[in-house]
Amino acid sequence: MDFLNLDPLLKQALEEDLGRGDLTTEAILERAGASREGAIQAQAAVLAKENLILAGWPVFLRVFQLMDEIEAEVHFEEGAQVDRGTTVGRLQGKASVLLQGERVALNFLQRMSGVATLTQKYVQRVAHTQAKILDTRKTTPLWRSLEKYAVRRGGGLNHRLGLYDGILIKENHVAMAGGIEAALDACRGPMEVEIEVRNFEELSQAIDAGAERVLLDNMSPQEVQKAVEITKGRCVLEVSGGVHLGNVVDYAETGVDFISLGILTHSSPSVDFSVLLHQYDDVKG
Asked: Which pTM was predicted?
């Protein structure tokens, strides 16, 4: 992932928070630095306040880099398990930069690590099966690349990134095309075509029309099991809708190939980090 391409988004986030200036930091540092030359330097420790999967450190760091030069070290790879109370990494630079960028940087890190942490919970639940965990397009506007990156760091796979890089025929497309067979015929080409079905009749129609991949929409585990038996390996099967941590194993053990989950990106809770600052002895003029 090219994190530099995110600069416009990160700059907007900083502008949203800083506005005309950080009133608190300006007042505190003006008083603290009144008798000293140059900018006050500080060091910061980034702590995990719960068990989590790390995702987004490059974005976290980039927020500060857009403001000024910063020195940094990180102690974990992206996608690594981090235990509660562990120091994830350290920063060193101008105190003003660390104070002003802290909240924005943490918002990215906490959100992305939250997505990765939830994703891994699902991935671990189904690890004994052939089913793979997928995300969806139910993402935060303008955060899609970040959230889908976080899904990968959590061990999941990305479904299509947008409407431009994959074909998924949904019920409204079928209605506009005049039926399942007509919709599949219209979309055939070099790219794999996936079609959504809601019942066994539509599944049979899709298979008879030569569907390569079928999405079983809002079916129970028992219905999915029957769909697997009907399909007999003639196409790839994906499940979506109604899946959660309590029943994902039931779905995975039916023998489906993929389980797609909007919850990974639209409802994953952010995890908790803290940034603790202290002044650094060396002062740069």
From this structure: 0.93
